[in-house]
């Protein structure tokens, strides 16, 4: 009787976008974040790639989650053209040539000779030549999900070169309603951009939204040997048994 009840509850929640698992701490600590989350999200997950660049993460998503639905966001005109061309045959991929932030509007976007450094913020020091600056449209995740009838995000990845906190603030309602399961976010320990968010900013915000920190990944260091940046994984505590 109890096993039938448990199965009924699992099926009921699954149809509404939730999946119940016994979360293994060791599994979550896998050095590949996609493999770490793969056992805890739906078979056909909804994945957000904020700061898609030319589609590197899209390719990784499709290897681990071939039937996933991916929503990519990239404000750079140059990078977006490459992204669109390189993934024109990728199924269940929605491409958006916009920036993501805490509120809808438009902002100056800075394009550097190294496209991986492109940002809505200006760099604190010269490492790459600024080649262009122009206005881009900015949307929020909350607004986007409402407009596109997206009930749940299984994994939100954001790599926006210091603008991560604003991206997360724009997903406030989705988080409050427990509709985001995992967040994979770039974090900084050393000032790379003027006005950037720090790891502490991101950690405090996500903790306040009910997320638990899982682990860091590969670090980048300054010339002095100080931690500069890395990526961090968080899980919504409501998905942990």
TrEMBL record:
Residues 49-212 form the Methyltransferase FkbM domain. Pfam families: Methyltransf_21 (PF05050). Signal peptide: none annotated. One of its GO terms (molecular function) is O-methyltransferase activity. InterPro entries: FkbM_Methyltransferase, FkbM_mtfrase, SAM-dependent_MTases_sf. PANTHER family: NODULATION PROTEIN (PTHR36973:SF4), SLL1456 PROTEIN-RELATED (PTHR36973). This is Methyltransferase FkbM domain-containing protein. It comes from Flavobacterium magnum.
